[in-house]
Amino acid sequence: MNNYDLEKTANLFPCLSRGEEKMIYFDNAATTQKPTVVIDSIADFYTNGYSNIHRSAHNLGFRATQRYENSRGVIRQFISARESDEIIFTSGATESINLVANSFGKNIVNKNDIILVSEIEHHSNMLPWQQLAKEKGAKVKNIPLNKDLTIDVESMKKVLNDSVKLVVVHHLSNVTGIMQDIKEIVGVFQELGIPVFVDGAQAPAHIRVDVKDLNCDFYCFSGHKAFGPTGTGVLFVKEEFVKKMSPYKMGGQMVSRASLISPEWADPPLKFEAGTPNISGIIGLSAAIQFIEDVGMEKITIYEKRLTEYMLEELSQIPELIIYGGQKKAAPIFSFNVDGVHHSDISTLLSENNILVRSGHLCNQGLMNYLNIDGCVRVSLAFYNKLDEIDQFIVVLKKILSFLNK
């Protein structure tokens, strides 16, 4: 394991260490930058070992298949899944969610059944379930929330009945950085035999994910939010469910015997990976996960806690800020507004000072409606960010607010 100095890790990310004018990248909840080891792994595959996988008997094909499948093992270990067959590669969390909605949800949800969904989910973890309910004549009902935007477990228990067939929640909020108690939530539904789907898109870059400990039935995340390439994703499906799911896409690789009358599907996970996959992307994702492991998740968590506490302390000293989500953050994600100032004006002026943040509804209009706002500014950090970047951001933010409030 490498002994990385987190104060210097930005030097390992080419986009963050360019010689031109200094950029402060605070838009990590949207997507993270990529370390050199990830970029090099992709270039090496195309330069020295490119081939399709699971098809050709030649050496290039064998080595490419081996690297691809070794990546599945890396992911299995990273999230502590029991079997590699429980790991399905997708194009991202969005496809993972749609896959489960179509391959599993359609098989268990019927007319008048209920899908419980938190009303503060990312659009990707809301729209597929709404579409499923519409097609099946089922209903989507909100999971009750506490004032601190965590799920109200006791109130949730009161809405349970035999009609509830599936529960959908996020692990870490893309707006507030607040973590839901997945283990407790799963425990409630497990007693009733109700499967739980967890959108973990924001989690792997910030906290240790252990699907055995969480005991959820489904868990997904996107590679590009965990220092890996775009177009890559991971879907964990507990073994007892993966064997019962029907294919989501049809094509090459996912079939063991093609027939006009009775085709036979390949065994999971290839059953759900039709066509030529994003081979280079998955190899790059494996490199990203190995990079996280080399840095050390415990070290990352401790360092990001320091960033979080420092940012909260500095933001709290700006009286005109309305900060959403309170102090209970498991990741350095901060969203706020200022009375009388539009959030897009703040983000635009920050960008002019080479500080990159995001503003708008953040693909989470459910939470915006819950908070009765039309959007906000989001500042999201990763372990390659530094305390002095927070200092620079605060100085510029105060100048912007002074200018806009004149």
Protein model, in words:
There is one protein chain. With 406 residues, the chain is α/β, with parallel strands linked by helices. 38% of the residues lie in helices and 15% in strands. The chain is built from 13 helices and 15 strands. The strands form four sheets. Strands 2-8-7-6-5-3-4 form a seven-stranded mixed β-sheet, with helices on both faces. Helix 2 crosses helix 9, helix 3 runs parallel beside helix 4 and helix 10 packs parallel to helix 13. The model has no long low-confidence stretch (mean pLDDT 94).
Instruction: List the strand order in the largest sheet.
Output: 2-8-7-6-5-3-4
**Mean of pLDDT:** 94
Overall morphology: globular
Quaternary: single chain
SSE diagram, text form:
Elements: E1 24-25, H1 36-48, H2 59-79, E2 87-90, H3 93-108, E3 114-118, H4 127-136, E4 139-143, H5 153-158, E5 164-170, H6 182-190, E6 196-199, H7 211-214, E7 218-222, E8 233-237, H8 239-242, E9 255-257, E10 264-265, H9 279-295, H10 297-315, E11 321-324, E12 333-338, H11 343-352, E13 355-356, E14 358-360, H12 365-371, E15 376-380, H13 387-404
Parallel strand pairs: 1-13, 3-4, 3-5, 5-6, 6-7
Antiparallel strand pairs: 2-8, 7-8, 9-10, 11-12, 12-15, 14-15
Helix pairs in contact: 1-9, 2-9, 3-4, 10-13
Salient structural properties:
15 strands, 38% helix, alpha/beta, 13 helices, 406 residues, globular
Please provide a brief summary of the model.
The protein is built from 13 helices and 15 strands. It has helices at residues 36-48, 59-79, 93-108, 127-136, 153-158, 182-190, 211-214, 239-242, 279-295, 297-315, 343-352, 365-371, 387-404; strands at residues 24-25, 87-90, 114-118, 139-143, 164-170, 196-199, 218-222, 233-237, 255-257, 264-265, 321-324, 333-338, 355-356, 358-360, 376-380.
